[in-house]
């Protein structure tokens, strides 16, 4: 009985060994094939092929012989080892084992000889080397099968002789009995199985044809399945099998999940279509748009789920208190479309704006802490945005790696400049042209180090251009300030007395400036005569400055308005106390026992509520910005395309090729627009929780509208810029905007006391007092004590210092790592060159 | 359509998923597109080949200057005619897919650029490559001196062992530094 088991074990080992040699043989064969091909090519004739083949075959036979000798040596060595071991353990049945092994080796030899013979035959018959490879593959497969059959036969032989032994034997016909393996062998088997598993995992990364991969996969899987069960002993075995099963299931689940995830990504087909028409740079805008959409979805989920819905469902209903009611004076026009469009009337007194929220600590039966939730969501949206942007930046930086060394300028132009996604003939032509010019430019630059014909003129022109741009920026800033000031005057007069233009002046002026100034900059930048890439960067920088300037003037003007409102609020507050006192007095005088007079909430005088005003301004800004974007899209792209297309039949010159032509898709401008739009969302969403929702709608519409516009009325760019380099540039801009837009929001939260009669923080001195309040009332006293200690400046300051030091330390280490990296790279290059030279 | 999708058995589908960088949907889509290229009587055959002439009419490959080379590299045909079986087609898509590694992408890129299949990029290969990249029109072509200059510059940069050709390891060395190779070496169905 025990001998049978041992035989099995030996057989398994043998087979493993065989398959290994088989594999190496195949690899060798491949190498040889390649070599042979090279030789043939160098020879240049096909006449000597047969001879060479023969030679190669003989060579191979020799090599095989050598290998066989080696393997024999190995087996004998192993035999010796095992013999020793066996002697140590008792030396039972060694002889039988040895016999079988000898027989095995003999058979192996025979088979190998046969294989070589087969190869010779094939070499005579077939010509193409690929075919040969394939055939050999088949041969190999057959061989494996043969072997497997042999082994099975062998396996069943002893069993049939000892049939009546027990029934378990029958059950594991194929499975090796683990109890009979020595731990060393087990270890080896385990290693082999692990190796196979690794092979299976790495198979997809191998540049082999599918057939070969399939064969290897099946072989390895068979092997793994066969011997995996043999690993582990007794009790452990079941656990092991279970584990294996679970990992298999888990892998399958992961794969399915991955499939599911990719299926869930929206607009994949749309983007792909654009990619194939316009190349990857235009598509990168849409991918960016989609990414933004995802972020806004999450922001929307946060504000909608944790702020708007709880207040709407569990808070006090509309009309129950002054802040939730339209005042009497506005009641008549509160439902007018013009008013609603301006987010006044019923829209203003709804969950969309800050002022509607009540300051009761908990709402509903869930005891939902409304003001706290409002505050935390405001902080959370900003924190989440920071996290996402920085994480994406880090990932992009990782992916692009060390892309900034310029040592392979020409090779990169040569090997990586084609965009394989292009599937449109016109784009391909443009790409050809741009590659050609880039080649020519590079050659010219290399030949002569940029000879400047009139340096004084270009310098003068550049200074002039920058001066003009500065004038533009200052002018636009002043215009916005002026307009905002004027609108305040209008607001004081009462909005009803003014025309539509006067009411919407601020937003319209901002949008128009954002539309026309970039064009102006474009004209100005032709003066400068920069390289297009540099020119693009200047252009982006200028637009960025313009937008930023506009936004900040707007905010400064808004701050003025906030101060005005707060002054007004003081007056109103005083008046209200007077009014209440008079009311109280009056009621007391009339009837002291009657219940206090109930006044309809619409009639109660109230403060101006600056927070809602800020929120409204931002919402209006977003709306008008969206409108102008869409209208420019329709007029600038669609109408132009239509005119060019149809007037071309009856015009004196060629409109399509000549002056107006079709418009190109302006990737950088659109990305900048998107970034600034997002900045406004971040700034305003604390005071208008509806902003993320609006933005989601806007982005959704943008996606479809712009996709359509691009496909139907834009032409591919003449100069195709790479998308990858600019990705992190845009991200960096987004980060800057995020920082700059959270600054004013945080300033207002921290330094300005909230309105006394509206919003979730009314009655508090500062908005963040809500944290303090929660700590005091909802947590055990020791917690607030600890917190107050922790927030003590004596502790906070050293902590900040420590963080700064840590940042400094990390930065310096990363710097030194980078230096070491560069050094190592140099060394590696040297080593490679030396190696290749040898 | 349902019948063509069901032609792929479950096992082979999972095997293909194991062996390529494609997801299940992509494999099914590839199968659909591939069977559309086949003629009617070929649809029953398991390892039917689509000749190169029909492969390069795919809109994804149509305007690619390397379309013939791509077919030739991925073809396992015995006549070396660049015809593709479905498995070859999957290999192609896998190498050009989004999640393929830099290593495998650069390996195939090298083989595509190696026009005469001799395992190195020599001057003739590079010249052909430049001509492919600058298009067929005559006015876009570089002059011979420009071409010489360009090729000598390229060899100067990437031919580390100075044997006058660029071999695979040199090529991979150069490519691995490039910031946008992985993002542009992509074909999506």
UniProtKB/TrEMBL annotation, chain A:
Q: Topologically, how does it sit relative to the membrane?
A: Multi-pass membrane protein
Q: Which residues form a coiled coil?
A: none
| Annotated segments matching region Disordered | 1-181
UniProt biased composition (Basic and acidic residues):
14-31, 71-80, 96-122, 131-157
Which ranges are annotated Acidic residues under compositional bias? 159-172
Query: Superkingdom of the source?
Result: Eukaryota
Q: Major place of localization?
A: membrane
Keyword Membrane listed: yes
Question: For the TMC domain, which residue ranges apply?
Answer: 609-724
Task: Tell me which InterPro entries the record gives.
Answer: TMC, TMC_dom
| GO terms (BP aspect) | cellular response to mechanical stimulus; detection of mechanical stimulus involved in sensory perception of sound; vestibular reflex
Provide the transmembrane region boundaries.
291-314, 374-394, 463-484, 505-527, 539-559, 729-750, 786-810
Q: Which UniProt keywords apply?
A: Membrane, Transmembrane, Transmembrane helix
Name any GO cellular component annotation: plasma membrane
Indicate, by first and last residue, each region the UniProt record lists as having compositional bias (Basic residues): 32-44
- Membrane as a keyword? yes
Provide the GO MF annotations for this entry. mechanosensitive monoatomic ion channel activity
Subcellular location(s) of the protein = Membrane
Q: State the family it belongs to.
A: Belongs to the TMC family.
Question: What is the name attached to this protein's record?
Answer: Transmembrane channel-like protein
| Gene source species | Haplochromis burtoni
UniProtKB/TrEMBL annotation, chain B:
Domain of life of the source = Eukaryota
Segments traversing the membrane: none
Every EF-hand domain range: 101-136, 146-181
GO molecular function terms listed in the Swiss-Prot or TrEMBL record: calcium ion binding; magnesium ion binding
Identify the keywords attached in UniProt to this record, alphabetized. Calcium, Magnesium, Metal-binding, Repeat
What's the name of the protein? Calcium and integrin binding 1 (calmyrin)
């Amino acid at each position: 009985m025990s001998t049978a088991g041992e035989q099995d074990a030996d057989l398994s080992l043998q087979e493993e060994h065989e398959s290994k040699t088989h594999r190496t043989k195949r690899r060798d064969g491949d190498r040889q094939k390649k070599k042979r091909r090279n030789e043939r090519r160098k020879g240049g004739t096909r006449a000597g092929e047969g001879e060479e083949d023969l030679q190669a075959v003989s060579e191979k036979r020799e090599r095989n012989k050598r290998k066989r000798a080696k393997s024999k040596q190995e087996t004998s060595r192993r035999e010796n080892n095992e013999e020793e071991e066996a002697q140590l353990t008792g030396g039972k049945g060694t002889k039988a084992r040895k016999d079988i092994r000898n027989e095995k080796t003999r058979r192996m030899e025979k088979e190998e000889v046969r294989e070589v013979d087969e190869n010779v035959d094939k070499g005579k018959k077939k010509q193409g080397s690929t075919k040969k490879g394939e055939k050999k593959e088949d041969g190999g497969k057959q061989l494996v099968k043969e072997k497997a059959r042999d082994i099975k036969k062998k396996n069943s032989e002893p069993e049939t002789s000892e049939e009546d032994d027990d029934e378990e034997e029958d059950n594991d016909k194929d499975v090796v009995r683990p109890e009979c393996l020595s731990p060393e062998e087990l270890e080896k088997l385990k290693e082999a199985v692990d190796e196979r598993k690794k092979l299976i995992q790495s198979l997809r990364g191998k540049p082999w044809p599918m057939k070969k991969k399939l064969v290897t996969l099946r072989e390895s899987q068979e092997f793994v399945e066969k011997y995996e069960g043999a690993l582990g002993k007794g009790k452990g075995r079941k656990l092991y099998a279970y584990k294996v099963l679970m990992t298999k299931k888990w892998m399958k689940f992961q794969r399915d999940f991955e499939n599911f995830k990719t299926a869930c990504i929206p607009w994949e087909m749309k983007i792909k279509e654009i990619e194939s028409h316009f190349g990857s740079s235009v598509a990168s805008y849409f991918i960016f748009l989609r990414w933004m959409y995802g972020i806004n979805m999450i922001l929307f989920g946060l504000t909608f789920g944790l702020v708007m819905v709880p207040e709407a469902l569990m808070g006090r209903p509309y009309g129950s208190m002054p802040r939730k009611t339209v005042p009497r004076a506005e009641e008549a026009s509160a439902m007018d479309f013009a008013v609603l469009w301006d987010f006044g009337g019923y829209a203003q007194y709804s969950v969309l704006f800050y002022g509607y929220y009540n300051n009761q600590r908990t709402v509903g039966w869930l005891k939902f802490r409304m003001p706290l939730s409002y505050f935390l969501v405001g902080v959370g949206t900003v924190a989440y945005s920071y996290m996402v942007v920085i994480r994406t930046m880090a990932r992009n930086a990782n992916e692009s790696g060390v892309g900034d060394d310029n040592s392979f300028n020409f090779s990169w132009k040569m090997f990586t400049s084609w965009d394989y996604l292009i599937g449109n003939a016109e784009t391909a032509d443009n790409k050809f042209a741009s590659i050609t010019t880039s080649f020519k430019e590079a050659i010219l630059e290399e030949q002569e180090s940029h000879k400047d014909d009139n340096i004084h003129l270009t310098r003068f022109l550049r200074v002039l251009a920058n001066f003009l741009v500065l004038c533009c920026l200052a002018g636009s800033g002043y215009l916005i300030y002026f307009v905002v000031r004027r609108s305040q005057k209008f607001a004081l007069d009462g909005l009803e007395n003014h025309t539509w233009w006067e009411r919407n002046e601020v937003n319209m002026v901002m949008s128009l400036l954002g539309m026309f100034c970039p064009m102006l900059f474009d004209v100005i930048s032709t003066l400068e005569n920069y390289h297009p890439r540099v020119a693009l960067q200047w252009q982006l920088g200028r637009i960025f400055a313009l937008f930023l300037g506009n936004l900040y003037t707007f905010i400064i003007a808004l701050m003025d308005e906030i101060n005005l409102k707060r002054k007004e609020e003081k007056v109103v507050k005083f008046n209200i106390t007077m009014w209440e006192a008079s009311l109280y007095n009056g009621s007391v005088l009339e009837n002291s026992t009657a219940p206090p007079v109930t006044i309809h909430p619409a009639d109660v005088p109230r403060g101006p509520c600056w927070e809602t005003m800020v929120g409204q301004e931002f919402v209006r800004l977003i709306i008008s910005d969206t409108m102008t974007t869409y209208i420019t899209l329709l007029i600038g792209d669609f109408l132009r395309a239509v005119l060019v297309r149809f007037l071309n039949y009856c015009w004196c010159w060629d409109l399509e090729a000549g002056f107006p032509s079709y418009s190109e898709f302006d990737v950088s401008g659109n990305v900048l627009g998107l970034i600034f739009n997002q900045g406004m969302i971040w700034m305003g969403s604390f005071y208008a929780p509806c902003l993320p929702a609006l933005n989601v709608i806007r982005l959704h519409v943008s996606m479809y509208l712009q996709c359509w516009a691009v496909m139907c009325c834009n032409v591919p760019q003449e100069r195709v810029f790479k998308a990858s380099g600019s990705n992190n540039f845009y991200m960096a801009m987004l980060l800057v905007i995020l920082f700059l837009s959270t600054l004013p929001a945080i300033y207002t939260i921290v330094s300005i006391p909230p309105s006394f009669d509206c919003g979730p923080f009314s009655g508090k001195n500062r908005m963040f007092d809500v944290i303090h309040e929660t700590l005091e009332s909802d947590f055990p006293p020791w917690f607030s004590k600890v917190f107050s200690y922790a927030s003590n400046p004596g502790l906070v300051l050293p902590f900040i210092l420590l963080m700064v030091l840590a940042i400094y330390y990390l930065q310096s280490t990363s710097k030194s790592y980078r230096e070491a990296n560069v050094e190592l790279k140099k060394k590696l290059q040297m080593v490679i060159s030396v190696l290749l030279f040898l | 359509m349902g019948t063509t999708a069901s032609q792929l058995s479950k096992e082979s589908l999972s095997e293909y998923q194991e062996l390529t960088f494609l997801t299940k949907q992509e494999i099914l889509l590839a199968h659909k597109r591939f069977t559309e290229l086949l003629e009617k009587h070929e649809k029953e055959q398991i390892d039917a080949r689509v000749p190169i002439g029909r492969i390069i009419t795919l809109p994804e490959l149509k305007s690619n200057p390397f379309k013939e080379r791509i077919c030739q590299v991925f073809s396992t045909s015995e006549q070396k005619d660049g015809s593709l079986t479905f498995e070859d087609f999957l290999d192609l898509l896998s190498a050009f897919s989004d999640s393929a590694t830099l290593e495998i992408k650069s390996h195939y890129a090298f083989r595509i650029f190696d026009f005469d299949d001799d395992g190195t990029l020599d001057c003739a290969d590079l010249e052909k490559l430049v001509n492919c990249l600058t298009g067929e029109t005559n006015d876009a072509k570089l002059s011979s001196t420009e071409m010489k200059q360009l090729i000598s510059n390229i060899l100067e940069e990437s031919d580390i062992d100075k044997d006058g050709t660029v071999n695979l390891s040199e090529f991979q060395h150069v490519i691995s530094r490039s910031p946008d190779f992985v993002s542009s070496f992509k074909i999506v169905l």
